[in-house]
UniProtKB/TrEMBL annotation:
Domain Aminotransferase class I/classII large residues, every copy: 37-385
PROSITE patterns: AA_TRANSFER_CLASS_1 (PS00105)
PANTHER family recorded: AMINOTRANSFERASE, ASPARTATE AMINOTRANSFERASE
GO molecular function, one term: transaminase activity
Family: Belongs to the class-I pyridoxal-phosphate-dependent aminotransferase family.
Enzyme Commission (EC) number: 2.6.1.-
One family name in Pfam for this protein: Aminotran_1_2
Protein name per UniProt: Aminotransferase
GO BP, sorted A to Z: amino acid metabolic process
UniProt cross-references to InterPro entries, sorted A to Z: Aminotransferase_I/II_large, AspAT/PAT-like, NHTrfase_class1_PyrdxlP-BS, PyrdxlP-dep_Trfase, PyrdxlP-dep_Trfase_major
Cofactor: pyridoxal 5'-phosphate
Amino acid sequence: MVELSAALAGQHNNILAKMVPSPIRVVDDKFSTIDGILKLTLGEPDFAAPEHIKQAIIRDVQADDSHYSSSQGVLALREAISDYLVDRFDTPRYDPATEVSVTVGAAEAISATFQALFNPGDELIVPTPTFPLYASVAQTLGIEVIGLNTAPDFIVTPAKLTAILTAHPNAKAILLNYPSNPTGVTYSETELKALVAILREHQLFVIADEIYAELVYDAKHTSMARLLPEQTVLISGVSKSHAMTGYRIGYVVGPAELMKQVGKAHQAMVATAPGPMMAGALEALRNGREDPEKMRVVYEERRDLVLAGLAEAGFTAAQPGGAFYIFAKIPDFLNTNDTEFVYDLADTVKLGVAPGSIFGAGGEGYIRISYAASTENLKSAITRLKHYVDLRK
């Protein structure tokens, strides 16, 4: 072990020093020390990437694609992203040369977008419960996050939006993640249009994280990039849609003036996404349009399986319209301190789920269950949960 010079101790980034590691990963790492635990903590598809995508990557490696590409991504992939968004979600056609950037996952897309749009002290409205990464990235940049508690329906309504804008008239942007991580709740076109009327009046930037757009069950996904393109920066990728989380390909699209700044931030962080992984993403978007549908059918069956099991155990949950998460309310006859609950659940029946409070205001007293796991494991999880409830009643 190397000891840091005593004279240099504490001389690091003070903002980062105040930050805690990803709370989801902290919980998951603790559960990993429990022998025989069944974890439903991470949003990690249990499917393998489709074979034709893997073969496209292999061919690209064999063709010696081991050098820098354009910093914003290979042009063919940017063209494919533009075409895909038009074909699947009826967005405007984004100019591949000036309005599309390929990033190292959606996480890097979030960082680059925040760097491009905000100055220290700017206000960003973030509906909660939500993915903790947004607040972490904002904190490193000195962005003031204005939380908007959406419990118990987990939807931003026109009334809630109007109230928060009245209280914070200088807010620069709002972040909308839908289908939502952690709740799985999404928006209808009618609901979004009602928000758009307010957002257009107030001239806010909209950062739309639509990474789960292909995993919508009850209606077609409506993109903010279709309804309000002049104010929207759209973030997405192939991680969830094509089970390519480890391949780390995301993208950002938006008006050229904004994307010029996003591109600078991206270039400064990573230079470029890796060539073989971009070849896989190109294959996914050009020839893998049907791949998400096969997974979506299975996910929907799993959603219904888990919802039914939760109801039998006495839990309630908002209906997940997409993604692969269920945000379930802990019943009053159990310990409703969600952190204490999940650790006791893990210790008692070896079932790992995420405490709702780590996702921000409105998450207290809830648990997040990821059903991106095998059907066999989900059935076992429900059995363990019911056993736990019987023990604690």
